[in-house]
């Protein structure tokens, strides 16, 4: 008899009932002289004792600015030591860190800062083609006449402070290095009133409709997910983890940073943004034992022309997540990068993030074809999307997750929280999954029609709504199409208003500087009408199928 598609994880070891600051203090006590953080591109090295001391000084400096428990602080920067100091300093005293995507452009950052009421923003002057400081002065020109004091901003009413990472100086901005104070009793007093169920982090995740939502996560969410993810990956004291994944994602800040602190491992940042050569150099130079990445990162590393020059023999394992992994990539990772213990993980920001993970002992075919089994202290079920009833094992349906990892909700958005989390506490992932008789889960599709481009979650509706704001565009439909390098690429079919002219370069120019580069459609087609059902719904599967045929003909 076939059982139902419902599974529950182990209940041991117990959940950790501690705040993030307590976890760092514990690490500093257990491994004071062990390296905690190495930022290769910055030539920064810190032991756990040094990291804990620097975090306390930064936390005291933030409190000295008048910030209080529950205030939101944005961090808009690539991977760097300062990002991590902010992560732990804010948590130490109950400030809520808001992760800002380094690829965000003007309209996106303005929305994010206003949505959650950010009081202070920490950012670098620039990264790649993004001029963060210039963009912020466009939004908050008042900073230039503030003299470094708190200011009032017309477009960003909650914002009072701008803090600049780096050696550059700008009028009105506070240097990051100056946010430094003796901890004294203020830190302990602030930490004493914290509860591990307090919100401590907000990460923006788009939906299929409307603007991005602020997934709000607690100490309890993050500490426990970091512990169990690291445990499943085999991360332990003395390990050195190479972290090329972005810190603003849960992959970087929870599965990597926080997991290292919980388990006493070393965080190693090869570069500000992903650079396959920097990864190879850092693994060899720092003698890393573990490596994280999305499949496209591993492909870029394996295919780098200088790959053979670097000694990667210290590698043992790591995590591959973010999108499905081709089996040949997994085999090459194990054989050529010595990562026999690499595991696969699945989750979403709203579940802190991981709910399923493979085991280091699972056969390669299992690690590629599934996302492993349910994590401890979590439950999962697969339901019929129409009826909500649990389906039999081996049957596809919507994957739902329940347990400690589920977020309290979306910031200031009760309606969308209720849409995602039902009265029984089940998070409806929007993903189509299949659970087999042994409890392994396979993700077979996405109800929300989300596009995963190189590990970045891209939601068509957000791009469509932005394109709708162009005066020449009458209608638009965005879909994902297969791509060898990124897994999927973005395609937009557009109908124009009568007597309006617009070409592909015009669409891209309209997007440039306003939405993140990875959201800008690679393929743009102008059509007289979008394929519709009789009830007026766009038939996106037709668009996708036609594009697949067209692209195959071009490459064939």
Q: SS-based structural class?
A: alpha/beta
| CATH topology call of the domain at 48-194 | Rossmann fold
The strand count comes to 27
Strand order of the largest sheet: 3-2-12-11-13-14-15-16-17
Give the CA-based shape: globular
The mean pLDDT is 93
Range of helix content = 25-40%
Terminal residue distance:
47 Å
Query: Helical segment tally?
Result: 16
CATH class of the domain at 48-194: Alpha Beta
Please describe the biggest sheet, giving its number of strands, its sense, and whether it closes into a barrel: 9 strands, mixed
Q: Tell me the CATH architecture of the domain at 48-194.
A: 3-Layer(aba) Sandwich
Give the DSSP E fraction (strand runs of 2 or more residues): 15-25%
Radius of gyration: 23 Å
Question: Are there runs of 5+ residues with pLDDT below 50, and where?
Answer: none
Present the secondary structure layout.
Blueprint: E1 6-8, H1 20-30, E2 35-39, E3 44-47, H2 48-64, E4 72-76, H3 81-92, E5 96-99, H4 106-116, E6 118-124, H5 132-139, E7 161-165, E8 174-175, H6 186-192, E9 199-205, E10 213-218, H7 219-233, E11 240-242, H8 250-263, E12 266-269, H9 276-286, E13 290-293, H10 295-302, E14 317-321, H11 327-336, E15 341-347, E16 354-357, H12 364-369, E17 373-374, E18 378-383, E19 397-403, E20 409-410, H13 414-420, E21 427-435, E22 441-446, E23 451-453, E24 456-458, H14 460-468, E25 473-483, E26 487-496, H15 504-511, E27 523-526, H16 540-555
Parallel strand pairs: 2-12, 4-5, 4-6, 5-9, 6-7, 7-8, 11-12, 11-13, 13-14, 14-15, 26-27
Antiparallel strand pairs: 1-18, 2-3, 9-10, 10-20, 15-16, 16-17, 18-19, 19-21, 21-22, 23-24, 25-26
């Amino acid at each position: 008899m076939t059982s139902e598609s419902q599974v529950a994880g182990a209940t041991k070891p117990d959940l950790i009932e501690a705040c993030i600051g307590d976890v760092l203090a514990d690490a500093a006590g257990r491994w004071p002289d062990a390296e905690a953080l190495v930022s290769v591109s910055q030539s920064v090295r810190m032991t756990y004792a040094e990291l804990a001391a620097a975090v306390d000084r930064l936390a005291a400096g933030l409190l000295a600015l008048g910030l209080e428990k529950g205030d939101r602080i944005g961090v808009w920067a690539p991977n760097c030591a300062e990002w991590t100091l902010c992560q732990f300093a804010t948590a130490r005293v109950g400030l809520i860190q808001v992760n800002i995507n380094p690829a965000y452009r003007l309209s996106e950052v303005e929305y994010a800062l206003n949505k959650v009421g950010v009081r202070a923003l920490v950012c670098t002057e620039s990264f790649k083609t993004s001029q963060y400081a210039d963009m912020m002065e466009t939004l908050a020109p008042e900073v230039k006449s503030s003299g470094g004091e708190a200011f009032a901003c017309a477009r960003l009413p909650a914002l009072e402070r701008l803090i600049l990472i780096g050696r550059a100086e700008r009028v009105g901005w506070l240097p990051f290095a100056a946010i430094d104070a003796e901890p004294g009793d203020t830190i302990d007093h602030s930490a004493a009133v914290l509860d591990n169920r307090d919100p401590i982090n907000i990460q923006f995740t788009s939906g299929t409709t409307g603007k991005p939502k602020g997934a709000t996560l607690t100490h309890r969410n993050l500490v426990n997910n970091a512990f169990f993810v690291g445990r499943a990956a085999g991360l332990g004291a003395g390990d050195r983890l190479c972290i090329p994944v972005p810190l603003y994602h849960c992959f970087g800040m929870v599965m990597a940073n926080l997991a290292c602190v919980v388990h006493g491992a070393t965080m190693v940042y090869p570069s500000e943004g992903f650079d396959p050569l920097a990864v190879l150099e850092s693994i060899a130079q720092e003698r890393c034992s573990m490596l994280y990445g999305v499949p496209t990162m591993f492909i870029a590393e394996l295919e780098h022309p200088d790959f053979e020059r670097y000694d990667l023999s210290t590698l043992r394992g790591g995590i591959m997540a973010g999108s499905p992994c081709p089996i040949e990539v997994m085999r090459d990772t194990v054989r050529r990068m010595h990562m026999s213990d690499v595991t696969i993980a699945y989750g979403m920001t709203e579940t802190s993030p991981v709910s399923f993970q493979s085991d280091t002992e699972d056969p390669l075919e299992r690690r590629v074809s599934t996302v492993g089994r349910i994590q401890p202290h979590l439950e999962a079920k697969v339901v019929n999307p129409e009826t909500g009833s649990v389906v039999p094992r081996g049957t596809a349906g919507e994957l739902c997750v329940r347990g400690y990892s589920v977020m309290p909700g979306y910031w200031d958005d009760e309606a969308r929280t209720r849409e995602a989390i039902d009265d029984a506490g089940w998070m409806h992932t929007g993903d189509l999954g299949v659970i087999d008789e042994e409890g392994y889960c396979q993700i077979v599709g996405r109800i929300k029609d989300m596009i995963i481009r190189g590990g970045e979650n891209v939601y068509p509706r957000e791009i469509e709504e932005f394109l709708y704001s162009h005066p020449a565009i009458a209608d638009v439909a965005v879909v994902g199409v297969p791509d060898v390098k990124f897994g999927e690429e973005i395609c937009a079919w557009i109908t124009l208003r009568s007597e309006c002219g617009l070409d592909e370069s015009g669409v891209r120019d309209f997007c440039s500087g306003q939405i993140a580069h990875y959201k800008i459609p690679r393929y743009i087609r102008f059509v007289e009408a979008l394929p519709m059902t009789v009830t007026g719904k766009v038939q996106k599967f037709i668009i996708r199928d036609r594009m697949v045929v067209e692209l195959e003909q071009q490459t064939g």
